[in-house]
Structure formats: C-alpha cells, structure tokens
Amino acid sequence: MAVVEGARRRVIDVGRRALGLDVPAADHTVAVLHSVDHDVPGLDRRETLQLMRIRLLGATGAVIMAISALGVGAQPVHQNPTSGLRVLGFFARAGTSTLAMCMIGTVLVVMAWLLLGRFAVGGRGGEPRHRLSRSQMDRTLLLWILPLSVAPPMFSNDVYSYLAQSEISARGMDPYTVSPVAGLGLDNVLTNNVPNIWRQTPAPYGPLFLWMGRGISHIVGDNIIAGVWLHRMLVLAAVALMVWALPRLSRRCGVAPVSALWLGAANPLVLLHLVGGVHNDAIMLGLMLAGIEFCLRAIDDIHPFDRKAWALLVFGTVLITLSSTIKITSIIALGFVGMALARRWGHGLRGILYSAAILGAVAVVVTVFISTASGLGFGWIDTLGTGTTVRSYLSLPTAIGIITGFGGVLLGLGDHTTALIDITRPIASLVTALIVLRMLIATWTGRLLAVGALGVALGAVVLLFPVVQPWYLLWAIVPLAAWANRPAFRVPAVVISVIVSLLVMPRGADFYVFQIVESAIATVIVGLTLIFLTRNVLPWRNEAGVSAPSQQPTPYGVSS
C-alpha cells in the first residue's frame, strides 16, 4: 500500500508541476521573456535627423514596392486597370526588372525597420540610450503604410476569394456549402480571380466577416477594384485599432509603448501581408486586442467592481467574441480574460466557474446573434478545417511529417508522408492544449500577466498549427510585443520576421529560377551599396548605453 500511495503522490506531483501549479515564480521559464522597461530621454538633434532619414528610407522602399505591384502584384485576371496601358502596363511586361524592384523595396523597408529599432528597443546591448516619441513612431508608421495602402494586392490572392465568397452570400446562397465555381460559375469574373486551389472549397471564415463582405458586394457588385479597396479599408481600420490598443496594453506590462508598436504594428509582416496582402487577420487582431484592453480596464483599474466595470467587461468580451467570428482562433483570449477576472474575484475554483459562466454566456449570445442575424447560420463551424489541406513549411508538425516522409523515400521505405502527418498533427494538438492550459493556470495564479500568457499560448497555437501562413506569425508576435521585451523573445521574433518577409515571393506571376537569382543578386548589390554609402549618416553600428549618466532611469508604471 505504501508503494502504491507513493506512486500516486509522485503522479500527482508531476501533474501539478506540469500544469504549473507548484512551479516557483523564479522557475517559470516563460517569465524570463519579460521585464520592466526604463523611461529614457527622447531623441537628441542628431538622432532626430537620423530618424528622418530612416523614415525616408522606409517610405522609399514602400513606394518602390507599390510601383512594382503594378507588375508582380496580385492583380486581377479581369478588370485589370493597367492592362494594355503603354506606361503602367510596362511593369507587367518587364518581369525580371519588376521582381527586382519588389525585392529591393522589401529590403529597404526591412532595413528601415531594423534601423528604427535602434530608437525603439535599442541594439543587442539592451534599451536605447534615447527613445523616439509616440508621435514620431505614428508618423513613421503612417508614412510607410500609405504607399502600400494604394497599391494592388501583394503576396496573396486571398482578397479575391473574399470577394467571391461574399458574392455567393449576397446572392442568397450558403458560402459554407457552396464553392465559387458551384455558386458563381466558372466563367464569372470573380471566380476567375480565385486561386485554383480554393475555387472548389467553401468559405473558411466566420459569419461576421462574410456579413461585412456581403455589404461590400451589395455596394460594388462585380467591380473587383472597388471591392479590393473596401476590403483594404477594413484592414486599415483594423491596423489603426491595433495601434490604439498595443500601447495601452504595453503600459499595463511596464513596456515602452513605442517598443510594442515597433515590433507589433510596424513589423514588416504587418506592412507586407496585412496591409499589402489585404488579410482579414488584421480585423481579428484589432478587435481582439481592443477587447482585451477594455476587459483589463474593468478587471485591473476599477475598484470596487461597479457598473462601469461591468459595462467595460461586457463590451470587451463582445469585441473578443466578434473577433472570433472573423477567425475562431482569437476566442482563446476569453480564457485568459476569464482567469484574470477569477484572480481578481478570488474564491478559488468557484471564481473560475463564475467568470467562465459570465463570459461564456456573453460569447454565446454574441455568436448566436451574429450567426442568425447575418442569415449565415452555423455552417462556418464545419468549414474551420478547410485550410488544413495545404501543407505549410512553417507548421512544425507538418514539416516534421514531410521531412520524415522524405527520409523514408530516400531509405526505400516508400512515401508515408500523409500517414506521418496524420500522426504528428494530433500529437501537436495535444501539446498545444497542454501549453494553453498551463498558461491559463499561470494567469490565474498571478505568475504571468494575461497579455503575456495569451501571447505565449498563441505562439504555441501558431507553431503547432496544421497550417501556418507567414502572416499567422502575427497572431503571437503582436500580443507578445506588448509584454515580452527581453532579447530571448525579441531577437528570434525579429529574425523570423525578417527572414519570412524576404523569402515570400510576390503572387502576381510565375517566375523562372534565373529571374529570381538575377533579382536577388541585384538586391544584394543595391543593399550593400546603400549600407556603404550611408555608413556615416545612419545608425548601422550598435551604440551601447541605456540613458544619460546624469539621469536616473525610472520604470514605466505597471497597472496589471
């Protein structure tokens, strides 16, 4: 009996430690990603001049990309406004030159972003000696976004799927059972612009997004250019919401707001794929972040918990739920808000059940309302896995399955890639569930702030997701930008953002290998030449130091 009792206790101890219930704060490895930023002086005259040059460098890159999009952007097959024009149509005919322009513009934007980081998060040595102001960051970000906001879609054709699926809904059909080919016909101008892989598949998006898309279809009909513009307006509004929410969330975590904006909103992945690629992930992220901010205002800032707190909590919960009716992934944020609320109320497990019941009730009501009021019903639940048919190299379980399957082929064991992926993906799902549960408990016990724990959980979801597109990385990077300010996170996040931004090719044409190689060589030459010419006028070298010696650093206030 003693042996059995000892084994039982060891299992319980291991289980509690695995869930994070008995882990000391110092031993919680995720916590090392966060510390409190110090308040440092603003830029001096020389640094302000450098900032203006950096801003111009990024804007130049964005303009070059916007021009190159006339040739290598994801322009529509029909209703292409540049087709047949002598000047504007030149870019589509000069494939190699236009591809080189796009690569050079992308490199300039990435270079400018990295240089801007000197004044936002510092170099490898830590915090910056001086930090740019919020207004300087906002003006820089706006200048970089504007050229891409008026350019044709880049790096993705998904916006044309949005238009086709919205038109199906506008015609009174169910986009969750009817594909573009079945609903609109193969000869329809909207169907012809949808990538071949998605022409026979139903919509994988939530009802709120298709409800908004239906409104756009009623306004523009089959006018593709106008439809793309209106969808981009939604994305730009969502990016503005991200810019509003990120600094407020970062202050709660003691992180400099401009640091969070630099990594989260000015990230090249945001510029290239959310703004340039017109992806609805921007709407999901904007609504989710704004909802978290309103919920945390109620939970952390209002004492006692009065009517205003209840109103903010409900409003924030509604926003998070609305974001999940764009893409279901963001519903996970409600769990972390609920744990933060349960910690505020106390009462152990009873507090968790109480907060879960309240937030769950609000979420159910909002979801049912959107699904029924839109007339789209709940068919979207059945199509959530539509995208998993794609094999993505950024997905860890998929990559393991593909590599292992390829190894089997080399060893003469046959191609078992599909079977291996069917094994690795469920295992990855179990690991993801365990990590999310551990982060929820860390929020409840107070070891991690809700924003940071959510970001870590979304990081696990992204890395272990069956399909990971480049812009999916922003699901984790954007919320973590408000909390994880240590090099252990920022360095990998920056490296991954840069590599993915540079490797993703435009979607406007099929390129030969020689075109890609020639464009890459031209890009390297231009990049190295630029660095050489600006070595004395731009802050390419790392400058150590955190603040002026005469000024004592003070931490940002932490309100949660």
Task: Based on the model shown, name its key terms.
single chain; mainly alpha; 22 helices; glycosyltransferase; glycosyltransferase activity; transferase; membrane; MptA/B-like
Description:
- Helix content is 63%, strand content 1%.
- α6 (158-170) packs across α9 (207-220) and α10 (224-252) packs parallel to α13 (281-301).
- It has 22 helices and two strands.
- The protein has a two-stranded antiparallel ribbon with strand order 1-2.
- It has a domain at 40-152 and 510-541.
- The longest helix has 29 residues, at 224-252.
- It has 560 residues and is an all-alpha fold.
- The two termini are 47 Å apart.
- 47% of the residues are buried.
- It holds the Pfam family MptA_B_family.
- It is found in: Membrane.
- The chain crosses the membrane at residues 54-74, 94-116, 137-155, 224-246, 258-276, 311-340, 352-381, 393-411, 423-441, 448-468, 488-505, 512-533.
- It is a multi-pass membrane protein.
- Its main location: membrane.
Helix content: 55-70%
Q: What does the radius of gyration come to? A: 25 Å
> What average pLDDT do the residues reach?
84
Tell me which oligomeric state these chains represent.
single chain
SSE-based structural type: mainly alpha
Q: Give the strand order of the largest sheet, numbering strands 1, 2, ... along the chain.
A: 1-2
* Count of helical stretches: 22
Strand content: under 5%
Could you tell me the number of beta strands? 2
Low-confidence stretches: 544-554
* Secondary-structure element series: HEHHHHHHHHHHHHHHHHHHHHHE
Distance between the termini: 47 Å
Coarse morphology? globular
Largest sheet: 2 strands, antiparallel
